[in-house]
Amino acid sequence: TDYRPGHVALVNAVFKTQSDSVFWDSFNDLNNRLFIKIDSTSTDAFKHFVSTCATSDSASLLIKTHRFFPDQFRTDSIPSFSKKDSVVKVNFKIKEIISPEDFEKLESDLRKEEQRRIMAFFQTDKALELAYDPAGFYWIERPEPASGNAIEIGDLITIAYEGTFLNGRFLEKSEGNFEFIFGTPDQLLKGLNYVIGKLKVNQTAKILLSSRLAFGDSGSSNGIVPPCTPLIYKIKIIDVKKIK
């Protein structure tokens, strides 16, 4: 039974292959911000075990590979480095159990830190002001002028994009050209939809998204993007088709 509803565990965790090769750790990959909501009823083996622990507890777990990657990274494919592993090794320690009230304050502090990081990226108030778009994102590289019609809701568009963290570390990249109907919910991050609506065919732009237009206060569901993390995306509009 869960006796700590609403509480959150701050966890240091290291994920290893069977041969003890580290492929993910919360310090380097998540800026020491692996927060796990206490839920002893979770079907995720790692999160379930964490929910039974107290501050300073540590453990080593062996989790079936075919179960681990869907649970932790929301993917059904097993990476090449772990295809021959029957289990994944998880070493972790509980740094702190945080009450709902303290976690709310922590989220507020993280949002303030995020704004400081965005300010540091642009360096001056003037540069920050000039980069800001009323839609809520920041222009790093504005598109060159182009002819053609603006993109509208319902258009079939083809794009290519790449996302990084502010320090340049790679996050994600579209596999080939990504095609979707503009305006379809949950196809892209909110901030990417906003900038696409301002572009035309063959235009390229580079933008900075605050977390509220990206993965928010909770970070990404697969644990790759920490809470309150601003991101940089470069995006190109390759084709736009009107659907009759």
Give an overview of the whole structure.
There is one protein chain. The protein contains six helices and eleven strands. The chain is of the alpha+beta class. The model has no long low-confidence stretch (mean pLDDT 91). A hairpin with a 4-residue loop joins strand 7 (156-165) and strand 8.
Outline the secondary-structure elements.
Elements: E1 8-16, E2 22-25, H1 26-29, E3 34-37, H2 45-51, E4 58-64, H3 65-73, E5 87-98, H4 100-122, H5 125-131, E6 138-141, E7 156-165, E8 170-173, E9 178-181, H6 190-196, E10 204-209, E11 231-241
Antiparallel strand pairs: 1-2, 1-3, 1-5, 4-5, 6-10, 7-8, 7-9, 7-11, 10-11
The percent range for strand residues is 25-35%
Kindly state the percentage of residues in helix. 10-25%
Ranges where pLDDT stays below 50 over 5 or more residues in a row are none
Tell me, rounded to a whole number, the average pLDDT. Answer: 91
